[in-house]
Amino acid sequence: MADRDGIFAGDDPFVIAQRWLDDAAETEVNDPNAIALATVDSGGLPNVRMVLLKEITADAFVFYTNYEGQKGQEIEASGKAAFVLHSKSQRRQVRVRGLVEREDAAISDAYYASRSLQSRLGAWASAQSRPLASRGRLMAEVAKITAQKGTNPARPPHWGGYRITPLEIEFWADGAYRLHDRFKWTRPARDQQWEIQRLNP
User: Fold this and answer.
1) Contact 166, 96 (CB under 8 A)
2) Is 178 a residue of the active site?
3) Sign (positive/negative) of CA torsion 12, 172, 193, 4?
4) pLDDT classification of 3: cutoffs 50, 70, 90
5) Residue 187 DSSP SS3
6) Can you tell me the distance from the alpha carbon of 192 to that of 194, in angstroms, rounded to the nearest whole number?
7) Which one of 115, 130, 178, 182 is the catalytic residue?
8) Which helix (H) or strand (E) holds 97?
9) Are 124 and 145 in contact (CB under 8 A)?
């Protein structure tokens, strides 16, 4: 496409997305890798929340969470999710829709081991998304887990990574007078070729 140049240039959307994330990391004050992750419940009602995008691989976007929390349950039921990565300072966003599967256990183990001890213990202590009587009850659970698991806890079986393999990726950049630039990459299946279209603002 003749006018897909500059920040939109390239034949690999994962490379473009990584480049945009790297650009955001130079200007965003907090969490340039924060994404708004959307799932749907069994009735089709959407849910959205902020999570941290931890890796862009050659074919997927990876984040980590509690598999038994609301987002995990909804992902397990549908196998699908969407997210937007928004860089306010760069005036850009990346929108992704795709298929979701659990990250390889060994990779989840390695990432879990890289986290702070407090975060690792917290992953054991929190029954994510479920009712909690008080903050004190949570901290008591953290203390109990600390006594049980020690300083080198293994990854909880209910916690790990998810890989989003996109079927759609849209790159959006702010334009003067709301005449934004948008390019949408689509494919019918993960092993198919991408089709790229410029979209109206």
Assistant:
1) yes
2) yes
3) negative
4) confident
5) coil
6) 7
7) 178
8) strand 92-102
9) yes
Tell me the C-alpha distance between 16 and 52, whole Å.
18
Query: Which two three-digit tokens encode residue 93?
Result: 């966003």
Of residues 99, 72, 68, the one with CA closest to residue 163:
99
CA-based nearest residue to 85, from 169, 183, 174 = 169
CA dihedral 110, 31, 55, 105 (to 10 degrees): 30
The set of residues, in sequence order, having a beta carbon less than 8 Å from that of 118 and lying 6+ positions away, is none
What's the pTM value of the predicted model, to 2 decimals? 0.95
Using DSSP's 3-state secondary structure scheme, residue 139 falls into: helix
Give first-to-last CA distance, the chain, whole Å: 17
The amino acid at residue 119 is S
Distances (CA, A) of 172 to 69, 149, 169, 179: 31, 45, 10, 11
At residue 1, the pLDDT reads 54
Helices (H) and strands (E) in the chain, counts: 5, 9
pLDDT tens profile 10-68: 999 999 999 999 999 999 999 999 999 999 999 999 999 999 999 999 999 999 999 99
Mean pLDDT to the nearest integer, 176-188: 97
